[in-house]
Amino acid sequence: MESLRAEHEALMQFLYLAPVGLVQAGIDGEIVMINPISAQLLMPLSPDGCLTNLFTALEGVAPGLRLQCAQYPQPNGMVFEGLHIHLRAEERRGVPQILSFTLLKLDEARIMAVIQDVTAEVRRERQLRQSDAWLNAILTRISDYALAAIDREGRLCDWNDSIARVTGFGEHIVGSPYSIFYPPDAMTGEHLLDRLREADANGWSMDEGLRLRADGSQFWCSALIAPLPDREAFGDDPSAPAYCLILRDISDKRAATEKRRQAAFCDHLTSLANRRAFFEAAELELERAAHTPRSLALIVFDADHFKQVNDRYGHPAGDRVLCDLANVLRDTFRAVDTVARLGGEEFAVLLPSTGIDQALASAERLRLAVSTRLVAADGAEIAYTVSAGVAVLDATAEGNIDLLIKRADEALYIAKAQGRNRVASWTPELTHHADTPQRSRHAG
Question: Which of 102, 256, 309, 422 qualifies as a FRET site for 363, CA 20 to 30 Å off?
């Protein structure tokens, strides 16, 4: 008897201290035992303030429990599990609440109810679902973002619908390294692993550049790689998702940036480099020459008698002459040369790693090409010529861009003074013209 009494007391202690609500009742719902948590949860539901019958207490929020229990076909077992009972704010004194209700049939005469307050869990689950739905809606509707999961070796193992929209690739890329999005030779296997190691060390790794679509076309893209927070849950499975790859199509952004760059560094009339771009390129070339000694040549050009063209034919005709000259300049010089319009009818070409003989030959080639051209202007055909001044800083000379321009201007003045439609080069003997270095800019 003492042993049974001890077991009974231990059981009752467990029932009363259990972290969930426990109610034992007869088959008709009359409560035999109820622990404090159950009483706290159910008491506000009792219509008369007296909690004596389980079914009566729940009739207002979960009708039909009595009938459902009576119709359960087995003498014992689980009648239902995890039924959610939603309590309105007024029933909970201003606090909406959700109870999880499980009903067990112990035998023909007894039932047991297990009650839990799952309000916080349900709300968290609902918030997670809403967050997932919200995030998914964003990720599937933003056309310039694409997400993919990659494994520890950088192979693609999952992606969202935007991958196909952004890159054109589909399911056939499963198991391919994510370098499939890069132009040939743009990313080696070692570079790929370096990106993953950088992501592990810093929490993310990002780069921007040209990427490939499935049809072979290229687009500007930023690529962000970040380790997945729960990747350890997959253990040592090498094919399990380990990183998130986010690709963003930034073609429009790059186009806007290029448009701004064009506005800042291009001459609006000829689309050549403008004065600002020329001086930045010149400073860069001088810096390179300081570290790797090499010569730097400069040619300055003027359209001869340009003021007369404007006065006789009008400024639109003058603009056509300048644009024509710009086209000849593009065709004459190399891609590494900086061809710029400094202002008015004055042009300049900066030629890295170029000696005086090569610079003079290029200037003469341009002069001859221009002298055979005619520009149509309102029924008239305009013939024009150019004069050019050439100066070179050799690999051993010290100097700056102002000195180079000054010398080229002095040579241009000599070419014009000798009758125009000529090319002249700077020599030390021309220094006696240094007191009037800007005359060529206004001589026409």
Answer: 309
